[in-house]
Amino acid sequence: MRHRLIVPGAVAASLLLAIPASAAEPSPGAPGVGDPYYPDYGNGGYDVSHYDLRLKYQPENDKLEGTATLLTTATQDLSRFNLDFALDVSEVRVNGKKAEFATSGAHELEITPAKPLKKGERATVVVRYAGTPSKVKVNGFTSWHRTKDGGVAANEPEAAWWWFPSNDHPTDKASYDVSVAVPDGTQAISNGTLQSQRSTAGWTRYNWRSRAPQATYLALLAVGKFDITKSETDSGLPVINAYSKDLGENDGAARASVERTGEITEWLEGYFGKYPFEALGGVVPNTDTSYALETQTRPFYSPGFKNGANTSLVAHELAHQWYGDSVSVRQWKDIWINEGFASYAQWLWSEDQGEGTAQELADYTYASYPADDEFWQVKPGDPGAENQFHDAVYDRGAMALQALRNKIGDKDFFAILKGWPQERGGGDATVKEFIAYAEKVSGEKLGKLFDTWLFTPGKPATGPTGKSAKALAADAPAKPKSWKKIHSVHHAERRAHGH
Known about the structure:
The protein is of the alpha+beta class and 499 residues long. The chain has a domain at 328-494: Orthogonal Bundle (Neutral Protease, domain 2). It is 28% helix and 27% strand. The protein has helices spanning 9-18, 251-258, 261-272, 311-319, 336-352, 358-368, 391-408, 410-424, 431-442, 447-455, 469-474, 483-494; strands at residues 27-28, 46-58, 63-74, 78-84, 88-94, 97-98, 100-104, 108-112, 122-131, 144-147, 150-153, 174-183, 187-189, 193-200, 203-214, 221-224, 226-232, 238-244, 280-284, 292-293, 300-301, 328-329, 428-429. The strands form 6 sheets. Strands 6-5-9-3-2-12-15-14 form an 8-stranded mixed sheet, with no helix packed on it. Strands 1-4-8-7 form a 4-stranded mixed sheet, with no helix packed on it. A hairpin with a 3-residue loop joins strand 7 (100-104) and strand 8. The longest helix has 18 residues, at 391-408. The radius of gyration is 24 Å and the shape is globular. Residues 460-499 are annotated as: Disordered. InterPro entries: Aminopeptidase_N-like_N (IPR045357), Aminopeptidase_N-like_N_sf (IPR042097), Peptidase_M1 (IPR001930), Peptidase_M1_aminopeptidases (IPR050344), Peptidase_M1_dom (IPR014782), Peptidase_M4/M1_CTD_sf (IPR027268).
């Protein structure tokens, strides 16, 4: 307890000035990081460096039991802190001692340690929990997708709440160990590399490790009966793909797409530099979803490859490994750093496959949307939470990059594409920081260009390749062969979670 001194006002003021900040009473960490789109996502007062998740899952009744161990560091003198979580918690310990805990709001777990944490203090937080993830809804939805033989956690921007407690914001990345016990004959797939698996008394435990910093929404858990393929890239990276055994007529198209993961990754390295992680792959569970997600090292794909193979989709999700995963958004309004670049990677892949050049796609995209279309009212550089996955973030976002390419030339443009993830890898960034980087590399002032394409509502007077709207209307560009498959990705991601 702090003793209170009663002294004259002037003396009191001087004493207060003399007291160091560390002498202040510990205070609770903020219940959110203050992201303008999702203010209560993430938490203040600490950082997580590692998650160790030891889970047991029963597909028959969708029951999940878990013990999560978080290695944290206090960023302030901390009396209480929050984790984002939605399942039932039975016990919490901080540095080995039982801690008080309570739920608040839809997904806040408030933890009061037996002893306040000092700024800079490392703490081990253990949370024991259980629940039925598919039955737990927050804000009217669940990010846990039940399947006939298991379940999958995959969504954006929130997925962790249904299977592990976390500091759920991209600015707090960590390494992961994910250990999952499932009935024999069932597999558990996660990110990174499979360290080991062992069967005991009718249960098989899979131990996965992700070494590189990883945002919480990029953590994957898929449980079911899978056919698993294993291979290596020419550079020796392990490639592990998993396909639900009940994909039916979509099985062939799914494999024809995802089995090219290693090839497409090596192709992307030519544009973005060395692949930033230690493993590759993809998972195609038989969910009732219609979107894909760039879960780190092992993207999640919905099963509906109804129109045959779609390698453009694979190129999009793999491009995110550099743009979105390795370099993440500082705030969710910076989503263009993810989607604009992944979409442009599809344009480059289209060009490589002879299905339409990036310039042809840019001209066609620009001409496809009339000036009075709502598409032009969305600002990719800050689209708003309701438009975070709007077509404009993808299409207008990619057009912004083609406009940049035409402005500064291929040499500087491709130097920027490769240099940015090398400079920022493992961290996060803002749109404005990317603009500053592009100006530094190119030596040109680019504020007006980016303001036009990312921050100004309305259709630009000229297209990204410099042709006027009137000229393009008079000589309408032909639809590139790749257009339909590219656009299907954008529509699917927009439906990811109902925001």
